[in-house]
Structure to design on (333 residues):
């Protein structure tokens, strides 16, 4: 049975497709609409009785959801790869268009097929939580813009009357505050709908420094703690794990985290860690000790983030809730 690799470059309206064989036969290129009819047409075009087809496309967010869902409905295997991973694997590139991109994706799948893991869509509830978090992010950005604009108008108001604009902006901010509260309530409702998600949510929010938003992001990004084998791998993904920077005897740089990271979850975890070192006795003691050793604040908080991730993964894997050992020991004594 022959293997064929189908590289798909996704855009809002169309899918550019390249079919590449494992035996270096001539590639096939075509374009279909990014719709139910278009995806079904692509699948029917690629059907070969004596072959195994593997579909591959970049993680493009919502534009690739329909494609993934239809492939799953047909029980067809597919890989969903971060765009940066494909780009970095190609080396120096000259020229770019949708047809070339589909060829590069197919080639990536062909070269790396033995290392890739087949993708599967998360549960509907997790998709709902993810999109609500994205919408909340959007509202937060708009509110921040209005707040900055309001401060600017306060300065103008010192020399000219712009009270009308200030009042209008104030009303916009109030409405956004209300909308953000409603979105957060919807997130909580979606979490409560599914038992396993709700169970894990309750476990990880027992960890000090892990609030509703941190827990929601962790559930979405780990696919309810099933996508990462261990917390170390998640810390690498989030840009929390430090890596050595040295070469021979001449280069001995500082150990530092990678710039290839999920910036959103790192920010959320940093906020939680800053709270944890105030309210968690063990982490407060750890922070104080490291500070006395001369460590920088951000370096210590980064380490606290790693500890929070380890704690969350630990409580999910066991039945008992999180126990603060410092408080437990004080109570026993």
């Amino acid at each position: 049975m022959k293997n064929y690799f189908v590289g798909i470059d996704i855009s809002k309206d169309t899918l550019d497709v390249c079919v590449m064989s494992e035996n270096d036969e001539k590639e096939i290129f075509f374009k279909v609409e990014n719709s139910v009819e278009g995806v079904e047409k692509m699948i029917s075009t690629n059907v070969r009785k004596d072959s195994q087809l593997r579909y591959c496309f970049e993680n493009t967010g919502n534009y690739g959801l329909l494609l993934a869902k239809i492939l799953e409905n047909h029980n067809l295997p597919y890989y969903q790869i971060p765009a940066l991973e494909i780009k970095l694997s190609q080396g120096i590139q000259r020229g770019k268009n949708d047809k070339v991109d589909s060829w590069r994706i197919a080639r990536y799948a062909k070269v790396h097929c033995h290392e890739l893991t087949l993708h599967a869509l998360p549960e509907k509830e997790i998709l709902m939580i993810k999109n609500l978090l994205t919408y909340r992010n959007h509202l937060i950005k708009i509110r921040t813009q209005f707040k900055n604009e309001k401060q600017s108008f306060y300065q103008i108001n010192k020399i000219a009357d712009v009270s009308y604009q200030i009042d209008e902006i104030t009303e916009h901010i109030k409405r956004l505050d209300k909308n953000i509260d409603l979105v957060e309530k919807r997130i909580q409702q979606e979490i409560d709908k599914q038992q396993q998600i709700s169970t894990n949510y309750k476990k990880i929010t027992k960890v000090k420094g892990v609030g509703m938003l941190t827990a929601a992001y962790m559930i979405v990004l780990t696919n309810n703690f099933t996508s990462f084998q261990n917390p170390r791998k998640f810390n690498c993904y989030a840009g929390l794990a430090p890596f050595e920077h040295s070469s021979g005897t001449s280069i001995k740089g500082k150990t530092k985290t990678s710039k290839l990271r999920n910036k959103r979850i790192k920010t959320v975890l940093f906020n939680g860690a800053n709270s944890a070192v105030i309210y968690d006795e063990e982490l407060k003691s750890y922070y104080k000790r490291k500070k006395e050793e001369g460590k920088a604040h951000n370096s210590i908080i980064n380490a606290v983030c790693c500890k929070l991730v380890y704690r969350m993964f630990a409580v999910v894997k066991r039945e008992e809730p999180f126990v603060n050992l410092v408080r437990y020991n004080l109570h026993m004594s």
User: Anything to note?
Assistant: The two ends are 69 Å apart (CA to CA).
